[in-house]
Every structure is written in structure tokens, then in C-alpha cells.
Fold:
Amino acid sequence: LLRRTIEGVGDVGEVVRVKNGYARNYLFPKGYAAVVSSDAMRGIEKDKEVEAKRQSELAEYHATLAKQLADMTLTLEVRAGEDGHLYGSVTGRHLIAAFEAEGYSFSERQIRFEPVRELGNYEIPVHLSKDQVVNVNLWVCQDLQDLEAMKAASEAAAAAELAGETLDEDGEVVASAEASAEREDAPVEGAGDAAEESGSDEV
Structure:
């Protein structure tokens, strides 16, 4: 009998089946569950009141935490080749350690991040609860100088996209969508003269 709501197990007041070891080593010692009995059932209403208060406080905490995380940017300095390919990969465990360095504690269940093997800008989905996910900005770079270059390139690409321009690998403007359209619509130089000459030869 659950005396509190546990994600992935059940809600307070529910009768659930769990492994013996999980019950003996975790649920019972912490007071999160009890063996089904008349005494346990009589106390369940009180347990529900306590759980309702806990959930309310947890929701307030998550709301505050979500605002903090939304404005947060993590930076991981790694070793990589000239092509930007990492010597290894960045995984959820690296991110958990990075969050801890900033004063935040998360479990692997909360940081569901697919390993990356390239330098770049990513989003970390942080699962605060089953219904609340916050994305945290992540830069994977070799050093601070590399980070500044990557940010500048990202900003240039974003500005070019807004202007309808295309950048090459060196960040130089190749063409704009508007200019390309004008070139397509523009008459070919000499085409009119050729047509006139062609017409003058007709009999």
C-alpha cells in the first residue's frame, strides 16, 4: 500500500505489486509504503493529505527551478579533431556532473540525452516531472576561444537565414533568395539581339 506517490510505481493509496527487495530495502524503510492491513488502510486519508501538501510544494519548487534552467547555458570543453569530431562522446553522465558543478542535482532518469560526438550547440531535455520538461542550452567546444567562434558563426547563420541568404563553410555570403530570384527572372544579355538577328534572316 503506497503511502506517497512514486513516479513509475503508483499514487498514494494504491495497492501495487513490487519486487520484495525494492519494498524491503527502499519503500518500507523510508515509510513510502506499508504492507496492506486494516491499520494501514485507516491511516491512508492522513497519508493523502500529507501527499497533497508535498505535491503542492513540489510544484512550486519545479516552477522556480524551470525559470532558472530556462535562462541557463552549460558549456563543456572537450578534445576534438580539426573536423569537429570528438575524441569520445558527451553523455548524460557528463551533463549530470556539469549540473552538479552549478549546484543542481539530477538523476540519469531526469537527463535523457542522446550521446553526441560533434562540437556544436545542443539542447538538454531536463525532466522535472512526468509532465514538465525544460530544455537547457548546451555548448560543446574545445576551449573558450572556440566557443566564441562557434557562437559568432551561429549568430551569423541565424542572421543570414532571416535575410534569406546562404553562407558557405567560411561564413561568407553565397547568395540571397531574393537575388537568386531576380537573376532567374532577368533576361539573358544578348538574347534579344540574337532573336532580332534570327528574325531578320527569315524569308
Remarks:
- The longest strand covers residues 120-129.
- The chain has a mean pLDDT of 84.
- Strands lie at 73-77, 85-90, 116-118, 120-129, 132-141, 165-167, 173-176.
